[in-house]
């Protein structure tokens, strides 16, 4: 049985991005997961169905997950037997992110609870159910390496450090890096990071 690496994209991404990671894991099959979930409870159903056969049929399963894809993976695959995880700009504390969005939109906790959901000008949706879910669910425990851009505008350096310390993850910070790794320089840095820990 061959090892497998599953790539889990971020918001607006797709499984086509998997092609970039193929050469970095030459001794493994590399598969992209094009999920449709938009919440962690939807991800729990969809991810478990997708990974069920893979986890049973492969020697080991590694994931490379980007941004919100990492957040979904942490909640859906907790305790599933993932051998190793590479998280790129992961959302690690959705509670803080939602509270930040509420503050920027001048929405109080009482207002969000009373209304249930609120549409924001940015096109994002604030959800009381999502906020409650983020507060109530445990953190990730699989061996993990985290790549973080210094200028990440979704997760603060303090938040990512606290998370990395909690789970015993390595944390690599790219100076002047962004939340979305996409330039040639950023992708070279990302590739070197994966090679260092693979």
Question: Could you explain the architecture of this structure?
Answer:
- The chain is of the alpha/beta class and 198 residues long.
- It has two domains: 144 residues, Alpha/Beta hydrolase fold, catalytic domain (Rossmann fold, 3-Layer(aba) Sandwich); 46 residues, no CATH class.
- It contains seven helices and eight strands; from the N terminus they run ββαβαβααββαβαβα.
- The strands form two sheets. It has a six-stranded parallel β-sheet, sandwiched between helices.
- Strand 3, helix 2 and strand 4 form a beta-alpha-beta unit.
- Helix 1 packs across helix 2.
- It starts with a strand and ends with a helix.
Name the helicity range.
25-40%
**Beta-strand percentage?**
15-25%
Question: What is the typical, i.e. mean, pLDDT?
Answer: 94
Largest sheet: number of strands, sense, barrel closure: 6 strands, parallel
Multimeric state of these chains?
A: single chain
CATH architecture of the largest domain: 3-Layer(aba) Sandwich
The Cα radius of gyration reads 17 Å
Number of strands: 8
Separation of the first and last Cα atoms? 19 Å
Shape: globular
How many distinct helices? 7
Instruction: State the name of the first-level CATH class of the largest domain.
Output: Alpha Beta
Strand neighbour order, sheet with most strands: 2-1-3-4-7-8
Q: Order of SSEs, N→C?
A: EEHEHEHHEEHEHEH
CATH superfamily of the largest domain: Alpha/Beta hydrolase fold, catalytic domain
